[in-house]
Design goal:
single chain; mainly alpha; 21 helices
């Protein structure tokens, strides 16, 4: 007897099934861990590069003016800040190329296989990072990181497509926040452990970052491919009650477009869709600025040693992870209390984008205090957690049917914008990594955050469209 059949003798309605027993709970957990692994593979280079680079050479320092570098652990590569910006952004060039193609393929072939095998590619290629850097130089490293990006490209559109199939509307904020907060959980794991591995790890320290996390991500990929169903309709373990509830809840209020072609004209002329797109672009620019540059700022401006750097750099993401869940609970509660989905998404998104904008505007003026600097970054990212109940889940409100495609478009465009963040930061601080130039880096990110949040507030909607 199948597991689902055994349960069916007890549970007749979905509301009777304990949350931890529901199949969608297991799917949510696996997607959360997948997102965590994806961000571990994405962010570990941000800490590793601090240990890889000879910063004294990059700054052109001599023994007389390098007295502040007592806590700095110089590495084996003489790469300028501008070149480091290109290395850090190379992952995203591969990442954006696979977004929209997989948005189309998902609708025809499903999301599970693309997600699982994409992460497998990302994970296996991670083992080549140390070899490529040491034997092939920065160009070989850029190519390897580019290939990793190709593998991770399907992650977000596939995750969105699976959420659209598995999660009822009144659970979307919580499930979406739970899954996408895996990004912060992965960063929380990656940054401090990467700092420790860079200091104490094998093969010279920093290479062990890619060996360890590559192994963990490979294990997840195998388990995901073997255990997670594509949808409730093909699951062999789900109860009839849960399957019926999910299918009816998701499709009851969705326009019937069975057999219809993709409504491109309607999508591309939709102001709510453009609101999501602009918000997504603004978020990615600000987020990638922090994710790729925060460890460097902590090392070069705040003079934080490598072991502590990963810990301090991860604290903002811990706050974002915790607050994302709190904001999601509040958002779903508002919707259940008959506050419109549109108003709820705008409230959450305002907190999520205006909050970090304000802290980025101020943090550069407290560079003499490590405590205040960490607190401001942490407060800003805590507010940023609200975006998972804002624009990030809004694609599912507009169309469960095309959610994977919609987020493929916005995520591709947003990452094209986001990959410019480390490049622009690298150019700003290239010749003079002074606090004045770091303030410019943070000012640009703050303005982008604020403008994007305002556009979303003007155009966003929570009503189903397609």
């Amino acid at each position: 007897m199948e597991k689902g059949e055994a349960r069916e003798t007890v549970y007749r309605r979905d509301s009777e099934i304990p949350a931890h027993v529901r199949s969608r709970f297991f799917v949510t957990i696996m997607l959360f861990l997948g997102m965590a692994n994806a961000y571990i593979m994405r962010t570990n280079m941000s800490v590793a590069i601090v240990a890889m680079v000879n910063h004294t050479a990059a700054l052109g320092e001599d023994a007389e003016n390098a007295t502040k570098a007592t806590n700095r652990q110089d590495g084996e590569f003489n790469w300028s800040y501008k070149l480091q910006g290109y290395i850090l952004s190379s992952f995203f060039y591969g990442y954006v190329l696979t977004q929209i193609p997989f948005g189309f393929l998902i609708k025809a072939y499903g999301a599970k296989q693309f997600l699982g095998w994409g992460m497998m590619l990302n994970s296996v290629v991670a083992f080549l990072v140390p070899l490529s850097a040491r034997n092939g130089g920065y160009m070989a490293l850029i190519i390897v990181r580019f290939i990793q990006g190709l593998g991770e490209g399907p992650t977000v559109p596939c995750t969105h497509a699976m959420l659209a199939k598995w999660i009822p509307p009144d659970e979307r904020s919580r499930a979406g926040a739970a899954v996408y907060s895996g990004a912060q959980f992965g960063t929380i794991i990656s940054m401090p452990l990467s700092g420790l591995l860079a200091t104490y790890g094998f093969d010279g320290g920093w290479p062990s970052i890619f060996y360890v996390f590559g192994s963990v991500s490979t294990i997840w990929s195998v388990f995901f491919l073997c255990s997670v169903p594509e949808s409730p309709l093909v699951s062999k373990s789900i109860t009839v009650a849960e399957r019926k509830h999910i299918v009816e809840a998701i499709w009851a209020n969705s326009p019937d477009q069975t057999g219809s072609t993709t409504p491109w004209v309607s999508i591309l002329s939709s102001l709510p869709f453009w609101g999501i797109l602009i918000a997504h672009c603004g978020h990615n620019y600000g987020y990638e600025t922090l994710m790729t540059e925060l460890p460097t700022y902590m090392a070069m401006v705040m003079d934080v040693e490598l072991k502590a750097n990963g810990l301090y750099s991860s604290l903002p993401y811990l706050a974002m992870w915790i607050m994302a869940m709190l904001f999601a609970f509040i958002a779903d509660l508002l919707i259940r209390k008959d506050v419109s989905v549109t108003i709820t998404r705008k409230i959450m998104n305002s907190i999520g984008q205006y909050g970090p904008a304000v802290t980025l505007l101020t943090v550069g003026y407290f560079h003499t205090s490590l405590l205040i600097t960490v607190l401001l970054f942490t407060l800003g990212m805590a507010c940023n957690g609200a975006i998972y109940s804002g624009f990030k889940i809004n694609h599912l409100d507009l169309s469960p049917r095309y959610a994977g495609l919609l987020i493929a478009i916005t995520n591709c465009t947003a990452n094209l914008v986001g990959l410019t963040a480390p490049i622009i930061a690298g150019h700003v601080i290239h010749h003079d990594p002074s606090i004045a130039n770091w303030r410019i880096v943070f000012l640009i990110a703050a303005v982008v955050y604020g403008a994007a949040g305002t556009v979303f507030n003007i155009f966003a909607s929570g009503k189903p469209r397609w």
